[in-house]
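Input record (one chain):
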Amino acid sequence: MTGFPLRRAILAGVLASAAVVPMIAPTPAYAQFGGIVYDPTNYAQNVLTAARSLQQINNQIQQIQNQATSLINEARNLTSLPFSSLQQLQQQVQRTQQLLSEAQRIAYDVQDIQQAFDVRYKGAALTGDHAQMVANANARWEDSVGAFQDALQVQAGVVGNIEGTRTTMDSLVSASQSATGALQAAQAGNQLLALQSQQLADLTAAVAAQGRAQALQSARQAAEEAEGRERFRRFMGN
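The corresponding structure, as predicted from the sequence alone:
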């Protein structure tokens, strides 16, 4: 029969094909939707990579913000104080110096003082003739009067500086309290110290002027006593 050999040939061909086809390794599970392949493992790796990238970006943004804040703080610390009291303080000191420089007769000078005392307060100035004694006594009186007048003028100038000092101090305190950085605070503190120095200068000038007046008055009294003894000696001798 012709059918039996045909079936044997077909079976032999199928077996031969099965022997030739290699074994296929199992593939991971995946799904296909509308032509798009969904791989869960690949998706998880992509999500993890995206999360790490986002974290890095957030870290970089935070670093930039920190740097910007640091630069802003540095800019504030380097900002100068918009208020300066130096000119006002210098003007007050100059006014006091001007009053001291206008001292009458015996100025604040060592050589000038020495010369004046040699001429009017000691030695030959107390032992001359009557006319010389009278002239020297009158000169000593003028020295004392001028010194007391100078002291009053200096004291008046110091008192006049008080209002300017108060205004300057108010401005400096306000500037110090509203300082936005370390430099402004330091500059305000330095100007407050300068204000104190100006006040000390005024106080020194007032004390010096008053001391000068008292010293000349004491010297005049001592000269008058010495001159009186000389007059008495001459009177008794005659």
